[in-house]
Amino acid sequence: MADREAVLAAVSEDGQALFVAPEELQADEEVVLAAIAADGSAFEHAADSLRCSKEFVLKALAVSGEALEFASAKLQADKEVVLAAVAQYGGALQHASEAFCDDKEVVLAALAQGDGNPMRYMAESLQADREVVLAGVAMDGAGLRYASADLKADKELVLVAVGQDGCALEYAAEALQADEEVVRAAKENDEEALKFASAELQGVLGP
């Protein structure tokens, strides 16, 4: 059908074009997948039948983890679906049912992806879990801001964080901002990190 081919071409260029597609094409798997490939949030405009279909949602998530935002609430509460989403895009954690933000397996899978700032969405209990926070700061040092106070004072963990992003020093415990080894590691990663060191070390290590 000529119209179908035109819509397929349109959504492949701009996923949001699915919004103005005929209803029958908003329920067409190939068309919707093409739209999602161009823009994961285009799944918002897909037919409810597709957004409620676990089989189709898993296909969509293989293309873009962002599509989880517009899956049905039932599927956002399905662990298999959520794991598929965060394996593709760590930030999809924000669109999962709240219980998954306290699910160590799901959060570690999201952190391993290294994008979308999943540490921002994890439960307070996991902000105090050393294994989880270490995995997070190894991928995104600035995620140290979401760690518990005790972990912000964990020198080994903070060294990992500032080694990944020197300016993560901003979120370290005050004692570690005055620790020469930590500050040198941060400065080596990013000269700008020195501004987060203690006044004394700024004087010692500064220009």
Automatic annotation (TrEMBL):
It holds the Pfam family DUF4116. InterPro entries: DUF4116. Residues 28-76, 78-126, 129-177 form the DUF4116 domain. This is DUF4116 domain-containing protein. The lineage of its organism: Eukaryota, Sar, Alveolata, Dinophyceae, Suessiales.
